[in-house]
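look at this one:
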Amino acid sequence: MILSDKDIKARIAEGKLGIENFNEQCLTPNGYDLTISEVFFNGASVKEGAAKVPPMTWFAVSTKEYVKMGCQCASLWIRTSWARKGVVSSFGKIDAGFEGTLTLSAFNTSKGEVEIEIGKTFAQMVFEELSSEPEALYAKRTGNYQGQRGVTLAPKK
């Protein structure tokens, strides 16, 4: 079952879900729009103003929101306004029990640079109720990125 805006607010009020830097204007009927705190590309990080990502360039975005998932999970979807500019992304699920900001990977497929403004919405979280409580939450299963803040890249091997 997907949580509605009413369900999201109720879970936050009950302490079953947390979103630091919560902004009610980012609620959608069936999710929450995540905003950009940082953009990383070509080895540089932009945290103010706007990043101008060149064509055919990979970049990562960190969210302003620090989420505390509790016993629900969430799917991530790129906002169509970015897709219409030629930005593609591949997202996964946010595991039950995850806590931290989110690092989202994207690619500018367009023939021109794309301006990524700090503070704008980038992706939507769609919360899903689990059919039962998990035996172990994210921190106990893997927890590789638990507590992260800012763009967090995969460790080099």
User: Anything to note?
Assistant: The helical segments are 5-14, 80-83, 138-141.
